[in-house]
Structure formats: C-alpha cells, structure tokens
Amino acid sequence: MGMMMGMMTGMTFDLPEISKLPKEDRFTWILIWIMKFRLNYNLPNTATEALIKFVKILLKDCENINYESFSNTLYKAKKSLGLVTSFAVCQKCHKLYNKDDVTNIQRQTVMKCSHIEFPNSPIKRFKECETPLNQ
What we know:
By secondary structure, this protein is mainly alpha-helical. It has two domains: 21-80; 85-135, no CATH class. It has five helices and two strands. A two-stranded antiparallel ribbon has the order 1-2. The longest helix is centred in the middle third of the chain and has 17 residues, at 45-61. It is elongated. The N and C termini lie far apart (48 Å).
C-alpha cells in the first residue's frame, strides 16, 4: 500500500463517505479514481479497461459486496459517469456534430450541415454542404 501511495504522489483524491451514497452509486468513487488515474498517467484505453476488469474481479472476491453493479468495461464506466458523447453524422460529407446541438428541442427546423469542404478556395469558400442532419 505504501508503494501505491508513493506512486501516486501527484494525484490527490478525497474518499467519500460510502455509507451515505445510494446503492447504485457505491462504486462511482472507484470509477472516478480510475478515470483520474488514467488522466494523470496518460493510460491508453486498453490499460484502463484492464484496470476496471481487475477491480471487478477484486470486488467479486470480497464477500458481501454487490460487485455485479460495478462496470466491467471502459465504455460502461464512462457512460455511468456521464462521459459518453453522442454524435450526429452528416450522411454526405461525414462531418460530426454534437448530438445535443442537433436535437435541440427549441429549434423547430431541421439543422443542416454547415461544413465547407474547401474553405480556402475562392470559388467554393461559401458553398456549405447543407445536408439535413439526422439523429
């Protein structure tokens, strides 16, 4: 444990009072720690995925813990922490748009793609794609 703490001297993390968290959030602090660890040490997705799976196995070996609710993939961990972003794609030019921007309920019209393929071209600089964006 001392070696682990020495290894993480640049990373601070306050542990929450677990008993006060709702049952479905009992493991959220572990996922947040893993994500902070990932950013601090610039881990690739595959290493983060292995770390998440290791923690799941560790929780499984601990008796009286509902380990089933712990994420077992990086995608599920990101999703449970609200870190997953959805995109809308222009079917013609394949430009990506944040799905929340395209599906804004306040807009009554369908958003169109604003991508300009050759923005530095004197002839095509003002020609936008204008393909209607689907969700």
